[in-house]
Write a structure and sequence with these properties.
Layout (H helix, E strand, L loop, with lengths): L1 H7 L2 H14 L13 H11 L3 H23 L13 H16 L8 H27 L6 H39 L11
Helix pairs in contact: 2-3, 2-4, 3-4, 3-5, 3-7, 4-5, 5-6, 6-7
C-alpha cells in the first residue's frame, strides 16, 4: 500500500507546488501596488501541472494562505481571525478565469508569443473583473456607466503594477522551471513543449 501511494506522488507536481507556495510568500513582502507574483503563478501552474484540478487548487490555495497571513498578521484589524475579506470573491473569480484561459494553452508550445498573450490578457482580466467588483459592491461610484468608467480610470495606476508584476514574474517562473528540467531529468515533463 505504501509503495502504491509513493507511485501516486508525482515529483513534478511536488516541485511545481513548492515553487508556487514559496513564491506566494513574495506577496507578503513590501511591494508597489499590485506588483505581485500571483497572476504569474496562475499562468505558470496552469501550464505546468499535468492535472487540471491541481492547476486550480494549488495557486488559489496559495492565494488564500497569503491572504490569511496578510489579513491576520500584517493588517490586524479584527480580534478574530479573518478567513475571507469582504469582496474576496472578485479577486478569486479573476484568478479562476485566468487559470481557465491559461489551461487552454496547456498543449501548445510555451513560446514568447503565447506567453506574452497570456501575460497581457490575464492582467486585463484581473483589472476588468476586480474593478467591476469594486464598482458594484463599494458604493463609492454611481451605479451607471459613468460610475463604472470612473472606477476603471481610477484603477489605471494599479493596473500598471499588475501588468509589470506579471511581465516580471511569468518569464522568471517559466525560465526557472525550464532550467530545472534541463538540470534534473526526473522533472522533464512529456506534456510541456518549449
Amino acid at each position: 500500500m505504501f509503495e502504491k501511494s509513493i507511485k501516486l506522488i508525482d515529483i513534478q507536481t511536488i516541485v511545481v507546488s513548492l515553487i508556487i507556495l514559496a513564491v506566494c510568500l513574495l506577496r507578503v513582502a513590501p511591494h508597489i501596488n499590485n506588483f505581485s507574483p500571483i497572476i504569474a503563478l496562475a499562468i505558470f501552474g496552469s501550464l505546468h501541472f499535468k492535472n487540471k484540478t491541481q492547476a486550480y487548487v494549488v495557486p488559489i490555495l496559495c492565494l488564500w494562505i497569503s491572504d490569511y497571513f496578510i489579513n491576520n498578521f500584517i493588517y490586524i484589524l479584527f480580534n478574530n481571525p479573518v478567513w475571507f475579506y469582504e469582496g474576496f470573491y472578485w479577486q478569486y473569480i479573476s484568478y479562476f478565469v485566468i487559470i481557465l484561459l491559461s489551461l487552454s494553452f496547456k498543449n501548445k508550445k510555451i513560446s514568447f508569443k503565447n506567453t506574452s498573450f497570456l501575460i497581457l490578457s490575464s492582467s486585463l482580466i484581473f483589472f476588468i473583473i476586480t474593478n467591476f467588483g469594486f464598482w458594484i459592491s463599494s458604493g463609492f461610484y454611481s451605479y451607471d456607466l459613468y460610475g463604472l468608467f470612473e472606477c476603471y480610470v481610477a484603477a489605471i495606476p494599479f493596473y500598471k503594477g499588475t501588468l509589470l508584476g506579471t511581465i516580471f514574474y511569468t518569464p522568471i517562473f517559466i525560465g526557472f522551471y525550464y532550467y530545472l528540467q534541463n538540470k534534473v531529468l526526473i522533472l522533464k515533463a512529456k506534456h510541456l513543449m518549449y
